[in-house]
Design brief:
The structure is a homodimer.
Chain A (H helix, E strand, L loop, with lengths): L1 E2 L1 H8 L3 H8 L3 H8 L7 H11 L3 H4 E2 L5
Antiparallel strand pairs in A: 1-2
Helix pairs in contact in A: 2-3
Chain A binds a DNA duplex through helix 3.
Pfam families (chains A, B): HTH_3
Protein name (chains A, B): Putative transcriptional regulator
Organism (chains A, B): Marisediminitalea aggregata
Chain lengths: 66, 66
DNA sequence: ACAAAAAGTAAAACGAACTTTACATATAGT
DNA sequence: ACTATATGTAAAGTTCGTTTTACTTTTTGT
């Protein structure tokens, strides 16, 4: 699962810690998601979508063919 | 987290087992998600969106105010 | 009413999502 | 070069998503 969090942060000049705070998760969680270590839960994806005022699909991209 | 899985199944005349098979999860997982026992993972939400050719937001609805 | 299929439920087990604490490395400003 | 801020990483622990097995209840068809 790819995501555009780093770019969306950059556009707003937010640090990982800033984003973490706004999403109510730990900084390590943001880091891990950005680095692709794991996928966010669906509720967290919704929260990010609300924060950035984007569709989930515009932030997170599935990379499945099947 | 609410979802429209039951309706989407009904429109296609699929049982929970049918949907489970198409999404590659167990029937109990579908049942639990439909009954609101837990939220699907983001990858599973994407899979459902692809299957139904809908946006994730058109299948699953967050019910958060904060 | 009966049988078959579908839906609901529950417990045990496992991996994934997330936390806290802690430290290491990188980047930027003076 | 020094300091502060930002990012990366790791271990241990908790909760959540999912599976398997198995049983009960509801719905549907004849």
């Amino acid at each position: 699962m790819k995501n555009r969090l780093k770019v969306l942060r950059a556009e707003r000049d937010w640090t990982q810690a800033d984003l973490a705070e706004r999403l109510d998760v730990s900084r390590q969680t943001i880091n891990a998601i950005e680095k692709g270590k794991f996928d966010p839960s669906l509720p967290l994806a919704f929260k990010a979508a609300r924060l950035f005022e984007l569709a989930i699909e515009d932030i997170f991209q599935d990379e499945e063919t099947t």
